[in-house]
Design goal:
Helix content: over 70%
Order of helices and strands: HHHH
Structural class: mainly alpha
Number of domains: 2
Strand content: under 5%
Length: about 110
Amino acid sequence: MDHLMTGLVAGTLVLVAIGVFFFIKSNITMDSYNILLQTDDYTPKKKNGRRIMNKYAAIYWLTATMLYLGYSFLTNNWEHSWIIWPIAGILYGIIEKVLSLKNNDIAPK
């Protein structure tokens, strides 16, 4: 019975690996077309918006890391300080959206 379960788990992992391979292969092809045709996320306006956001992203994440480590080391409260990361991620998304709204960088629906 153990050999059967091991074989089924191995078979499932092989099928998942094949599926992931095809997802990645088709996405690489689609992204190549989008880059060449400058559509979706690769329009000149969106590329400019990403360039602006990338200038501030490094500073933002370094500040978040500094806050996390500073709070954790000073309070020795490692079991609760992890909450900084989800908050920083959500706040980053909000800032990115606000900047894209400010620059009229929204894709038409």
